[in-house]
Design goal:
It comes from Celeribacter ethanolicus. By secondary structure, this protein is of the alpha/beta class. Helix content is 25%, strand content 28%. The structure holds adenosine-2'-5'-diphosphate (A2P). The site of adenosine-2'-5'-diphosphate has 14 residues, from strand 8, helix 7 and helix 9.
Length: 282
């Protein structure tokens, strides 16, 4: 075996012995493919990384070498951390865009591989950015459920609210599966169900495939259908708080609806009745 092959073996044989070849490297622990367009993965949590449930970090891979200089640069995107702040590992939920610069490659990661993880969490979808209230709503489309996957497992959420409602809309039933399984797990797991205290309500809908509940989050809110279906009072700025994460058009439309209910957009520096973050990778 030549020296070069020896060296390659050392770098590629990451399954048995990870070699830190990247800056801010985090080793992949698990990958789950939900369908041909969605996957989630867990990585080792850097020991010094602290974050608030609902925040995001920059993650990515090294880009291909520049054809002229041969130099490689990191290719990074913002990803919500989908695991709660107390969890030992970090979890992410991602789409696979066939020609997307990052996700076309990231979708092929396997346990033992390394990704880049910049350990600087930030974001507005945090409990502290809202005024106290009684009901907390999570409004998500597609992979916008990721920050709520974190918050749904956060004890502080259930300490501060009497009821937590997750509205999640996707085109097709298979795209709801990540959220459905997570809610089921929270309700059946001994520790998580104690955290959740029976307060979490789940309202999934599809828009392009037959399902028991259908329609966009926005339409079901403005028509009042969700209040009827769940047997609850309409939104009220005194009691209701919201967190929004979806595509840009969704965010804009739902903000208009929440404004119509008398809720105001807040931020870390100025807590109000709702906060918004866009689902980043598209
Ligand atoms: P629809 O099928 O009616 O477009 P996407 O995959 O395009 O990101 O969409 C994810 C989900 O979000 C789909 O169910 C889609 O519904 C819905 N959606 C897209 N745009 C909006 C919007 N402006 N308001 C509400 N829901 C939206």
């Amino acid at each position: 075996m030549t020296e070069l092959t020896d060296e390659l073996m050392q770098v590629t044989d990451v399954k048995t012995k990870p070699v830190p070849t990247l800056p801010d490297a985090a080793t992949v622990l698990e990958v789950h493919h939900w369908n041909d367009r969605l996957f989630s993965f867990k990585v080792e949590r850097p020991q010094t990384l602290r974050f608030r449930s609902g925040e995001f970090v920059m993650i990515g891979l090294m880009n291909d070498p520049d054809p002229k200089t041969g130099k490689q640069k990191p290719l990074l995107r913002a990803y919500s951390i989908a695991s709660p702040s107390w969890e030992e590992h970090l979890e992410f939920y991602s789409i696979k865009v066939p020609d997307g610069p990052l996700t076309s490659r990231l979708q092929h990661i396997e346990p033992g591989d390394q990704i880049i993880l910049r350990p600087k969490p930030v974001g507005t979808l945090v409990v502290d950015a809202l005024l106290p209230g009684k009901r907390l709503w999570f409004f998500a489309t597609g992979t916008g459920i990721a920050p709520f996957a974190s918050l749904m497992r956060e004890p502080e959420v259930y300490e501060k609210y009497d009821e937590v409602i997750l509205m999640h809309t996707c085109r097709e039933v298979s795209e709801l599966e990540y959220g459905r399984q997570l809610v089921e797990h929270i309700k059946s797991d001994e520790i998580l169900s104690e955290i959740e205290q029976g307060k979490l309500r789940y309202y999934p809908t599809t828009t392009r495939e037959e399902f028991h509940h259908m329609g966009r989050v926005t339409d079901n809110l403005s028509s009042g259908k969700v209040f009827e279906d769940l047997g609850i009072a309409p939104m009220n700025p005194e009691t209701d708080r919201g967190m929004v994460c979806g595509n840009l058009a969704f965010n804009k439309d739902i903000m208009a609806i929440l404004d119509g209910f008398g809720l105001r957009e807040g931020a870390n520096s100025e807590p109000k009745e709702y906060v918004v973050e866009k689902a980043f990778v598209d």
